[in-house]
Amino acid sequence: MQHIFAFFCTGFLGAVVGANFPNNIQIVCSQFSKGVYAIFGFYERRTVNMLTSFCGALHVCFITPSFPVDTSNQFVLQLRPELQDALISIIDHYKWQKFVYIYDADRGLSVLQKVLDTAAEKNWQVTAVNILTTTEEGYRMLFQDLEKKKERLVVVDCESERLNAILGQIIKLEKNGIGYHYILANLGFMDIDLNKFKESGANVTGFQLVNYTDTIPAKIMQQWKNSDARDHTRVDWKRPKYTSALTYDGVKVMAEAFQSLRRQRIDISRRGNAGDCLANPAVPWGQGIDIQRALQQVRFEGLTGNVQFNEKGRRTNYTLHVIEMKHDGIRKIGYWNEDDKFVPAATDAQAGGDNSSVQNRTYIVTTILEDPYVMLKKNANQFEGNDRYEGYCVELAAEIAKHVGYSYRLEIVSDGKYGARDPDTKAWNGMVGELVYGRADVAVAPLTITLVREEVIDFSKPFMSLGISIMIKKPQKSKPGVFSFLDPLAYEIWMCIVFAYIGVSVVLFLVSRFSPYEWHSEEFEEGRDQTTSDQSNEFGIFNSLWFSLGAFMQQGCDISPRSLSGRIVGGVWWFFTLIIISSYTANLAAFLTVERMVSPIESAEDLAKQTEIAYGTLEAGSTKEFFRRSKIAVFEKMWTYMKSAEPSVFVRTTEEGMIRVRKSKGKYAYLLESTMNEYIEQRKPCDTMKVGGNLDSKGYGIATPKGSALRTRQAL
């Protein structure tokens, strides 16, 4: 059996197609006329349609490791797995909402089309950029434009040669620093030199088709090395790239298929004239369908994992390994397959790793200077290392290190921020950024546990519960006025007392007038005529008012009612004055012992309703994020005010917010965690105060990078 298959190479076909398209047709026809059974080769975008069309018309199978194309031609077998679903899963895993997609039109547009369709469904903002030039000036202009737009999240979908050129320009233009994240839509992540990215701190994620640690690839690689050694090859042995692995599996696919046909004794011989590919109409090869079926039915474990094809000639049941590179090195973060989609890798803690790796290094513990959690000692210059600091979190970090069994070094975060994501660059700052970009191992600080932060770092159980509260400057003590004696009772009560006083006096006057017992004869002086007697009544209107006033003042007077009805009215009035005077005395004592301060606001609702008092939060922290994401009407109104206020109401540190409150003369309120608010309120000069209740409920937690071995060991 001769001329089983023919090999075509990309460079040859590309040159032919670019220079003279008819020559390429002659090459295919020449091979067909020689009686080839199958064609193995690479294609470009300009050659793919011609090759697939001829193979479909002539029933000659074409096996290729080139980029997958969307074709219904059953005689084309594509060795390279499709990448679009895996790429979308990774973009979704990182929760990207806005990114740049750099692609090579020569590679086809199937991946881009899938990404754009998904973007429309999930409201992603995708900027698609076609690489039309390979010149240095073209790359420079491209990345300068992206820098102006503050684009830091980039997907690069190119073949290896162009991908290496793009990565080289990224390094040259210094777009590989902290905050940049690149996803490489390529199946050979380990084939790319990314050392410059590792040193500069950029995050690079990609896919690896060949897992050289698996049994079969490792065995084949060892055989390959031994073969080179037997041939006395002096060239340094290098691990083959994924395209070479696909070529190896492609040859094995054909070998397995023809062995299967031979075992089944299927006659595929081509006797006599092999045929004319330019005949009109085309005359297909009769046995081509048998070879096509045999090729599609091949299944084995190769260098690229499970090699299997579906009815359309595309790879199926394959696994892609997802690799991530940060400044601390390369690690596998999971894998992707058609059934499970993206599956994150188990963390060291989940895998039951031992403590040896924890104990054999010094961990960096990032924190922030914030009273009373972390403070510099007054004589800090006399100490070194961790001994320079004191506070709640300093002691907590020491206890955790003792419990887990590791040595550590406290590092104050350089930018003095807790950690928030820049809405434009998507880069994290503060302590969260230290963990995300691998510059620290643990964060022990008053770091609030939030959903957004938990997407990029891990938290322990809360070690302190708290909520957002309002800090204002303590109002000045109110000076007593002329009528301050009225303060123990409300003005409404005083008015009721006045009306009651007048009413009782009038009733007493009327009762005395109508009652005969209140009338009596006056005593005559000696010598006067006693035959005539004048009746008199002591409770005139003025005496009635005097009697009621004397009773109210608990002083009494020289007259009292004689009639039963008058005494009943007087008794009721005495009982009323007893209750009122007792209550007044009790309230007066409280008013004399407790200083009266009139607060201009009492709650968040009061803040939202007015515009005279400005209010703000920390510039980069969970409190600002709370208002930005809140859907409660009051908090939405407050956020609308804060983000548009001029001058800015946000502060860089809690200390700056406290100073601003003290210097504002009551015209600025600071929103911060309740624990810090209460602490500052008790510290001299004691001129701030917390008003109202907490706006929410949350907690402080100890943070570690995603997947850290310390995650469960330090759980409180």
TrEMBL record:
Site residues (Interaction with the cone snail toxin Con-ikot-ikot), renumbered to this chain = R421, R628
Q: Which residues cross the membrane?
A: 489-511, 572-594
Drop me one GO molecular function for this one: glutamate-gated receptor activity
Its biological function? Receptor for glutamate that functions as a ligand-gated ion channel in the central nervous system and plays an important role in excitatory synaptic transmission. L-glutamate acts as an excitatory neurotransmitter at many synapses in the central nervous system.
Mind listing the UniProt keywords for this protein, alphabetically?
Answer: Cell membrane, Disulfide bond, Glycoprotein, Ion channel, Ion transport, Ligand-gated ion channel, Lipoprotein, Membrane, Palmitate, Phosphoprotein, Postsynaptic cell membrane, Receptor, Signal, Synapse, Transmembrane, Transmembrane helix, Transport
Q: Name one GO cellular component term.
A: postsynaptic membrane
Please indicate which residues carry the site annotation Crucial to convey clamshell closure to channel opening: I601
How does the record classify its membrane topology? Multi-pass membrane protein
Disulphide bond pairs: C29-C277
Where in or outside the cell? Answer: Postsynaptic cell membrane
Which reaction(s) does the protein catalyse, per the Swiss-Prot or TrEMBL entry?
Ca(2+)(in) = Ca(2+)(out)
Similarity-based family: Belongs to the glutamate-gated ion channel (TC 1.A.10.1) family.
Task: List the protein's name.
Answer: Glutamate receptor
Per the UniProt record, the lineage of the source organism begins with: Eukaryota, Metazoa, Chordata, Craniata, Vertebrata
| Signal peptide (from-to) | 1-18
